[in-house]
Each structure stands twice: as structure tokens, then as C-alpha cells.
Amino acid sequence: MKKFGRISFYSGIIMVILFGAILLFLISWKIFIFFSSLIVIRFIVDNKYRNTKFSAVFNIIFCIIIIIFVNVVK
Fold this sequence. Notes:
Blueprint: H1 2-26, H2 29-48, H3 53-73
Helix pairs in contact: 1-2, 2-3
């Protein structure tokens, strides 16, 4: 289970880098910095509080923030 967690963590980081590169290409530096800091905070929370209610609530809030932000940028 620990190995699986590490693999998913690294794949998550790769996904974040790709996502960040796309954002940087499409929009601007400020939004890229904002998103990358949000994603880093999410990873820290996910590793500390995995499989707890706090982690679930934080993930839901994170998704809502991304949805709102994408709609505002469009």
C-alpha cells in the first residue's frame, strides 16, 4: 500500500507539472503561481491527513475553487 501511495504521489506531481505548463502557456504567471501553490498545499494535506474527513472536505473545496476559477478565466 505504501508503494502504491508513492507511485500515485509521483504521478500526481507529473500531472501537476503538465497542468501547470498548459496553464502557463494559456494564461499568465500570476495564475500559474496561484494554482501551483494551491496544488502543493493540497498534496501536503493529502499526505498528512489521508483517508480522513478533513482530507475529503479539503479535496471537495479544492475542486470547487478550480471550477470557479476556470469559469472566471473563460
